[in-house]
Specification:
The protein is α+β, with helices and mostly antiparallel strands and 481 residues long. It has 16 helices and twelve strands.
């Protein structure tokens, strides 16, 4: 085909498309200019109904509690467990035992399989198994295909019941923990929050943190002893979800865990930590950025003020761009790339805190702005509009805590683990919705007291914009190594 003919065809085709377009425009004229789409806020729609599937609770003969939720959409089974233990049970002078125990339980082999064989069997099934340690619990996970459930449960039972803590894996885990401590010096944010936790739990085992010396004091036998003390049937709960029936779950877990002997667990740690030494603390570090953290104890999940304080925290700083601290410190003044608040609620206590990451030359100004936000909130300035925004955001976000069957089963198991009312989740959104401005004002006056606040600033104090006297002379501290 000649180039001339090809150009003629292209030109004809172009005119054809243009003609079709003009005909379409004439047939379907544009809407009148005065037609305005309604505001999304004014669109009426049916209320969102949140119906939470209920997991079935079963207790095995040896005391193990199961929460079972069937879901046959995928040929996958998730098993999550909670163990009543945690880093707060580290022996004095040996902080790090709990974390090392969890790590080497997974990596250090079992009475039947060495570490390499254990890993190979998991890899062959494309299964995953993990165990991690937090302050007041250990979390265990196994994800396995339905066809491999027996082999997966066998490995999980070996890991939990008969770990051998291979010496070389123990030494490796301790070396990795030492390296983590070494790198902490180069991460101001992690270092600051670590030391804040030490201060807020100053008179409590929850404040024990690993050091080079405490890790050096730990022997392999300490891990064995910690495991024998806490990893027993009366101390563990399983959430089983996925492609499995209740009968199958009970039968299979009874087969692999039914012979596990139970015993009582002594608990000599108070559920309510003692009050910290309120005050102003400073870590001097030559860095172009300052980390500002302030906090105090707040409402527990069982406290009548819990839902009001959840909303209060959201408005104060955890609600993102519109929240007050973020808006004042970052949006309006541009003093921090991140600022806000956090609220860690437990069944018997809660911790509320504020933070900002700012350049050295604006440290005290950013700190002053955070204090001004808290002062304004204490003086009763929260508006009905802020309250409505916070409640809608929290209620809508709550639904996404239950995206998958394993999340649903986990949440319901966690209620019992934390000794919360069985209807806690069912009524959560309603109780958030019932929070009033008066409730927020009452919670702010009760909990946001400067007299109870622990403030920590990490930064280069000689280059701060103002003297270090917001709460009297600071106490200079040196992080433990």
């Amino acid at each position: 085909m000649s180039k001339k003919i090809l150009n003629a065809i292209i030109t004809s085709f172009t005119f054809l498309i243009l003609a079709v377009f003009l005909i379409t425009v004439e047939a379907f004229p544009a809407a009148p200019s005065d037609s305005v789409l309604p505001s999304p806020d004014k669109i009426h729609y049916a209320p969102l109904r949140f119906n939470l599937p209920q997991a079935q609770r079963v207790v095995l003969e040896n005391g193990i509690v199961l929460y079972i939720l069937e879901n046959h959409e995928l040929p996958l089974i998730n098993i999550n467990a909670l163990v009543k233990t945690g880093t707060m049970y580290d022996p004095e002078g040996k902080a790090g035992v709990a974390e090392l125990t969890a790590y080497v339980m997974r990596t250090g082999g079992t009475a039947k399989l060495n570490s390499a064989e254990f890993d190979n069997q998991l890899d062959f099934m494309a299964a995953s198994a993990s165990i991690t340690m937090s302050v007041d619990s250990a979390q265990v996970n196994l994800s396995v295909l339905n066809k491999d459930l027996d082999r997966g449960l066998d490995l999980l039972a070996q890991m939990l019941i008969s770990p051998v803590f291979e010496q070389n894996k123990f030494e490796l885990a301790r070396q990795l923990k030492n390296e983590e401590l070494r790198r902490l010096k180069d991460d101001p944010q992690k270092l600051a929050f670590r030391e804040f936790n030490r201060l807020i739990y100053a008179h409590d085992p929850r404040g024990r943190l690993s050091t080079y010396q405490s890790l050096a004091n730990i022997k392999r036998d300490d891990l064995t002893g910690f495991h024998n003390r806490f990893f027993v049937p009366a101390n563990i709960m399983f959430a089983v979800s996925g492609d499995i029936t209740k009968e199958e779950a009970v039968n299979k877990l009874s087969r692999y865990f039914g012979g596990w002997k139970t015993k009582d667990i002594p608990d000599n740690i108070s559920s309510q930590p003692p009050k910290p030494d309120a005050g102003f603390y400073m870590i001097n570090k030559e860095t172009p950025q300052s980390i500002i953290i302030g906090g105090q104890f707040a409402a527990s999940k069982n406290d009548p003020d819990f839902h009001a304080f959840t909303v209060l925290d959201f408005i104060t700083g955890s609600g993102g761009f519109p929240s007050r601290i973020f808006s004042v410190v970052r949006n309006k003044e541009g003093l921090a790339y991140s600022a806000g608040s956090f609220y860690r609620a437990r069944s018997t206590y809660g911790v509320f805190g504020t933070y900002a990451f700012t350049k050295t030359s604006s440290t005290m100004k950013a700190f002053s702005l955070i204090n001004s936000v808290l002062d304004n909130i204490r003086s009763g300035t929260i508006t009905a509009r802020e309250l409505d925004w916070a409640k809608q955001s929290i209620e809508n976000g709550f639904v996404f805590s239950f995206d998958t069957p394993d999340q649903i089963a986990w949440q319901q198991m966690n209620l019992e683990f934390e000794k919360l009312p069985a209807d806690f989740l069912l009524h959560y959104r309603d109780r958030i919705e019932n929070v009033t401005v008066e409730d927020l004002n009452k919670a702010a006056l009760h909990y946001l007291s400067k007299a109870n606040q622990v403030v920590l600033i990490l930064g280069d104090s000689k280059n701060f914009d103002k003297p270090l006297t917001p709460m009297g002379p600071p106490v200079f501290i040196t992080p433990e190594e």
